[in-house]
Amino acid sequence: MKINKIYRNKIYLDNDEIMDISPLIRQKYNLKINDDIERFYDEISYEASFEKGIFLISLKDRTKKELRLKLEEKYRNKLAILKVIKKLEEFGYLSDLNYAISYIESRKYGKNRILYNLFQKGIDKSTVEKAYLALAEEKEENVDDIKLEKLIGKNSKKINMSKSRDEKKMKEEQKLIQYLARQGFSLDKIFKKLKEYKENYE
C-alpha cells in the first residue's frame, strides 16, 4: 500500500483511498510519496480517525452512529473507526445516554416522536428509557407531562372552555389534539391533560 500523492493534509494511496491526516501524524511516521505504509496502515488510520473524531464532536454533540457514519466518509478502516468510538466512550467524550438526555430536554416533542427520532440517530429504546428515568428522578416529575402542559398552556386560546357547544372552539380544540398527537403525545395523555387544564381554570 503506497502513497501516490501528498497534498496539504491528505495522503492519496494506491488503493484509491484518500485519507485526512494531521501534520503531526505525517511527521510522526515521516510520510513521503512512494512510501509503503502497509505496516503502519492500521495505526495511521486509528490516529487520524481519532483526531477527526475529537474535532467532529467538538463542533456539536453526536451519537455513536452519527460519528461512525461521518468518519466512514473520510476513512475506510472500519475496525479503526470502531476502536476510536470505543475509546471516545471510555474518555467520556461520546455518550448516547447523555445525548438522549440533552435531546429530550431541548425538544418539545412527546415520547413517541422522541423515540422515533433518536432511533433514526442510532439510539435504542432502552437508552431512551434510561434518559427519561434520569430526567424524571432529577425533576421528580414526568418529563412528557411537563412538555405537554407547556404546549397546552401555550395554545390555551384553542381550548373549548365553554360547557355549551361552541362549534368553532370545538374544531379548534380538535385541531390542537391532532397537533399534539403529531408531536408524539398519546391521546390518553392529551385528553387527561386537557381535562386537568379545564378543571383548573373553571
TrEMBL record:
It is found in: Cytoplasm. The keyword Lyase does not apply. One of its GO terms (cellular component) is cytoplasm. InterPro entries: RecX_HTH_2nd, Regulatory_RecX, WH-like_DNA-bd_sf. It holds the Pfam family RecX_HTH2. The keyword Iron does not apply. Residues 95-131 form the RecX second three-helical domain. GO terms for biological process: regulation of DNA repair. Keywords: Cytoplasm. PANTHER family: REGULATORY PROTEIN RECX FAMILY PROTEIN. Belongs to the RecX family. Modulates RecA activity. This is Regulatory protein RecX. The gene is recX.
